[in-house]
Amino acid sequence: MDNSMTSSQGKIHRNVIPFTPEGEFYFGQGVRAFQRREFEKAIKWLTRAIELSPKQPLYHCQLSVVYTETGQYHSANQVLMNVLAEFGHDYVDCHYLIANNYAHLGLFHDAMKFAKDYLQRAPEGDFHKEAEELVEMLTMDDEEDEEEFAEEDELMRYQESAFYYMEHEQWEQALPILEEMMRLFPNHILAKHKYAEALFFSGEKEEAIELEEQWLQLNDSSLHTICNLAIFYHLTSNKEAAEVHIQQIKNVYPIREQQQLNIAVTLARIGCYYESYERFNRLPKRKLKGHLSYYKWYSITAYHLGEPSIAIQLWEEGCIRHSGLSTLGGPWGNSD
């Protein structure tokens, strides 16, 4: 072999500079993925870009745009609020983006506030036309409608907060919010069932069961009551009582996606993994990506049915979309 060639190759090898991509590289990848509407990849790339370059507010804002595009308005606003808190209110576009997300969430008074903040700070900004249209749409002349508007807005705010804590299994934080919801909105039935669920998992099992049994007497076809009692009795080893409600659940096929998810999660929690997996497979994923419980229980179900690769894929995707999921343990060591 030619010694000069060997020497040259060795020199080249010694001078190779390892490529360590920084935030800018991942940001570019994320933007391209977003433009191709490959949203899961976009979230992955942008999250990595932020990890490497946390002081780049543009990266955070682009991630929020992807969350908005996929209907994860609460997550989008969390990102944008962090930008305003860390980098100041000079990033005026955040105000409009937050307003837009609040409008989608039904939090119209908050949407109005941030839209007006944007117009005040940037009357000729890039989004001034959109902000003006949003303000116009939200403006109401009738005082009675305005009062109703405010009540719905307040209910949504409570609901969002309670939903967040319960999805992350922070039961103690959810309880006072749910108590206040029941006081302010006594006709809001869902709050009562969520309260019983939070009560049970915070350790007050007997009280939670007693509440749901009382509500069962008032409405023996309530899906929320049936699901809660199936879980409560299963986890307290009252198999006979649990089985009554489990059989009812297996025969229910709701139309609404939220109720379908509730059934699938309930079946997973009581160990009916085959039936749960069937239900999860039927769910419209695009409409439920904002639910941490979708990824948690779908992945646990897949794992218990001998589908570890699917389970891990679901868990990893869930962790990208919901950072709190990673703190709840993987599907291989999680049955509740």
TrEMBL record:
Matching PROSITE patterns: TPR
Key words of the record: Repeat, TPR repeat
Start and stop residues of the TPR repeats: 23-56
Matching InterPro entries: TPR-like_helical_dom_sf, TPR_rpt
Keyword Magnesium: no
Protein name in UniProt: Uncharacterized protein
Organism the protein comes from: Pontibacillus litoralis JSM 072002
